[in-house]
Specification:
Blueprint: E1 15-16, E2 21-22, E3 27-30, E4 33-36, H1 42-58, H2 60-63, H3 70-85, H4 96-114, E5 117-118, E6 125-126, H5 130-136, H6 142-160, H7 165-171
């Protein structure tokens, strides 16, 4: 992948050697993670949420079963669905919009697990509010889990010391100057 400040740099170029040729692409998947030439995490989060939805729909019949207790449904969510969504989250730099998308996904799954509640007065079924879902789901929310994993990863990198490449990227200072003008909008 060619990364450059100039968006049009090297668009028609490909890399060739004696054995093979590599074409220039805007994005590609590497070890299950989508990498883009804009270094945008939005596409990766969208891809992770799509994968989480696929896994959610594959076990949806378990969530609608009356034979399965709620604590087992929560374990299914935490053991099967959540790891699919959070794969590689240690490197994500979240903005508020992405945090909201992740919380919406989590609330949708939790609403399916806990189901609607019947009002004792009117005897009508209504969906649970977010505060009530947070009370019922005693585990930390998805955004908190991501932030704690990022901190754990940073501690791990710091403990490896200055002998690793990742450490030098974490504490290093970029060389050169930033281009003049307002930064490009990445949205």
């Amino acid at each position: 992948m060619v990364m450059s400040c100039d968006q049009h740099a090297g668009q028609s170029h490909s890399i060739k050697n004696d054995i093979s040729s590599f074409e220039r692409v805007e994005e590609f998947k590497f070890l299950g993670t989508t990498l883009t030439n804009q270094n945008s995490i939005q596409e990766e989060i969208k891809s992770r949420l799509n994968s989480g939805n696929i896994f959610y729909h594959s076990v949806q019949n378990l969530f609608s079963s009356s034979l399965l207790f709620k604590n087992y449904e929560i374990k299914i969510y935490r053991i099967i669905i959540l790891p699919v969504v959070l794969y590689g989250c240690e490197t994500w730099s979240l903005i508020l919009r992405e945090e909201c998308r992740l919380r919406v996904f989590e609330m949708r799954v939790l609403r399916r697990i806990f189901g609607p509640k019947r009002d004792e007065v009117t005897m009508e079924c209504r969906k649970l509010h977010n505060e009530k879902l947070n009370d019922l789901y005693s585990s930390p929310n998805i955004v908190w889990v991501i932030k704690s994993r990022r901190m754990r990863w940073a501690r791990h990198v710091v403990h490896t010391g200055d002998r690793g490449v990742v450490y030098s990227v974490l504490v290093g200072k970029p060389e050169g100057k930033r281009p003049l003008g307002k930064p490009r909008h990445m949205g």
